């Protein structure tokens, strides 16, 4: 049995805004909005990979986060861990303009399109949580 590709995403929120990047020149979902995301490198755990990816893509230093969910795509053999980044240092900037056309904060009530399927699934759960809080 082949090993699953392991991905990790970070959800950054400020009030009711969420940070998304517009992917470009990527193997999957180029032209779609997504959370900062990346693959685990050899020997990394999910938290270390997320810290590295967030710094590489946005320049922020993750201080703390909590696991939101794990998404499995058994057909494509992908395991995707998703973390809510609860504390970070720095202001997000686009550090990978060759792979990200734009990095922007969006209100949960005014999300862009198109959005990757995994990102959309997570956003829908966040929208549900925020409407339940009101």
Automatic annotation (TrEMBL):
Q: Quote the Pfam families the UniProt record gives.
A: NUDIX
Cofactor or coenzyme needed: Mg(2+)
GO molecular function, one example?
Answer: 8-oxo-dGDP phosphatase activity
Nudix hydrolase domain residues are 3-128
Transmembrane stretches, by residue range? none
Q: Give the catalysed reaction(s), semicolon-separated.
A: 8-oxo-GTP + H2O = 8-oxo-GMP + diphosphate + H(+); 8-oxo-dGTP + H2O = 8-oxo-dGMP + diphosphate + H(+)
Keywords noted in UniProt: DNA damage, DNA repair, DNA replication, Hydrolase, Magnesium, Metal-binding, Mutator protein
Name the EC number(s). 3.6.1.55
- Extract the InterPro entries matched here: MutT-like (IPR047127), Nudix_hydrolase (IPR020476), NUDIX_hydrolase-like_dom_sf (IPR015797), NUDIX_hydrolase_CS (IPR020084), NUDIX_hydrolase_dom (IPR000086)
GO biological process entries: DNA repair; DNA replication
Gene3D superfamilies under this entry? Nucleoside Triphosphate Pyrophosphohydrolase
> Which family is this sequence assigned to?
Belongs to the Nudix hydrolase family.
The entry's protein name is: 8-oxo-dGTP diphosphatase
Q: What is the lineage of its organism?
A: Bacteria, Pseudomonadati, Pseudomonadota, Gammaproteobacteria, Oceanospirillales
